[in-house]
Specification:
Bound molecules: ligand MTE, molybdenum atom
Shape: globular
Helix content: 10-25%
CATH class: Alpha Beta
Strand content: 15-25%
Number of domains: 1
Number of strands: 13
CATH superfamily: Oxidoreductase, molybdopterin-binding domain
Oligomer: single chain
Structural class: alpha+beta
Radius of gyration: 19 Å
């Protein structure tokens, strides 16, 4: 999402001068594993971090899953965009080790009958978790396939009884500069904010995500709660959500307010509408053959979810509402 410096391709090209010795990449979790392997006695405060991700109970939902080969856990958790922890792809894994996703609560408000602040446990309690393997397409023209664990956003939203003025849903990420090094500088206006039209939010593909590969979310992927709308560019999928509100007017979204000519509110994956500085026709699947010239594949309309979501945008000029 770099604004001026790079073509999207460049974001993934590591120059020899940028290669850091492996030891510099070791995060607390890696150190912990190394310590355990070495038979060292680990202080209690560190042991808590060993249990950072926990196993979840869920059922697989093949009807809502693609059959593409999923990316590895390593790929999904080490190549991230989460500017609260830095702007490079490896920063979130490296810098999020001391972020505390528990305890957590989410404030619900706006045009709805049921409002208040709910603990994560309150939020999750009535929902059965499922695994869905979704395609994921970043606006920077790379992609992954990710086995998420979550539950339909519509089931959560319905509990708060939105009223007839609830035309959009707005989301906010936590602001915690003491644990989020990127928030100590003004790369973006914090908090990161996003929004969906209410019918997009209520679409059965829209998920609240709490895990991946059967375990709770690692911090770098948006612990403990993040959004997933697989037909939209990655940046719509706001991480570490602390506020959800129902609103009448189209809410602000971080990349749209940062660079409105480059990132629209809708942000639907669309190979025929180019970003002003690069083509969106193709994408580089992370992990699919290494090197600078690794395989690119065609980007599909609505990221391959066209039959499910095209009706949401009937009659809209998608070049104007990009
Ligand atoms: N709060 C917050 N949410 C965010 C971002 C961010 O910087 N901050 N980056 C977005 C972008 S650009 C992408 S591509 C995805 C990346 O999600 P992943 O790291 O789990 O693959 O998160 C999105 N959600
Ligand atoms: Mo992205």
């Amino acid at each position: 999402m770099l604004i001026n410096r790079h073509k999207p391709e460049d974001c993934a090209c590591i120059l020899p001068s940028e290669i850091t010795p492996e030891s510099a990449y070791l995060n607390r979790r890696d150190l912990l594993k190394a310590a355990v392997a070495a038979g060292l006695v680990i202080p209690a405060s560190w042991q808590a971090e060993a249990a950072e991700t926990q196993k979840l109970n869920y059922t697989k939902n093949p009807g809502f899953s693609v059959t593409d080969k999923p990316n590895t856990y390593e790929e999904i958790t080490s190549y991230n965009n989460f500017y609260e922890f830095g702007t490079n792809k490896e920063d979130p894994a490296r810098n999020s080790g001391s972020f505390k996703p528990t305890p957590w609560s989410v404030k619900i408000g706006g045009e709805c009958d049921v409002k208040g602040t709910f603990t994560l446990e309150d939020i999750l309690k009535p929902h059965a978790l499922e695994e869905r393997i979704y395609r994921f397409r970043c606006v920077e023209a790379w992609s992954m396939v990710i086995p998420w664990v979550g539950f339909p956003l519509k089931d959560l939203l319905a509990r708060f009884k939105p009223n007839s003025k609830a035309k959009y849903v707005a989301f906010k990420t936590i602001v915690r500069p003491s644990e989020m090094i990127g928030q100590r500088s003004g790369t973006l206006d914090w908090p990161y904010v996003e929004g969906l039209r209410i019918d997009e939010a209520m679409h059965p593909l829209s998920l609240m995500i709490v895990g991946l590969y059967g375990k709770t979310l690692p911090n770098q992927n948006g612990a403990p709660l993040r959004l997933m709308t697989p037909w939209k560019y990655g940046f719509k999928n706001i991480k570490s959500i602390v506020e959800i509100s129902f609103v009448e007017k189209q809410p602000p979204s971080t990349w749209n307010i940062t660079a409105p000519s480059e990132y629209g509110f809708y942000s639907n994956v669309n190979p025929s509408v180019d970003h002003p500085r690069w083509s969106q026709a193709r994408e580089r699947r992370i992990g699919a053959g290494g090197g600078l010239f690794n395989a690119r594949q065609e980007t599909l309309m609505f990221n391959g979810y066209e039959t499910q979501v095209a009706s949401l945008y009937k009659g809209m000029d998608l070049k104007k509402y990009f």
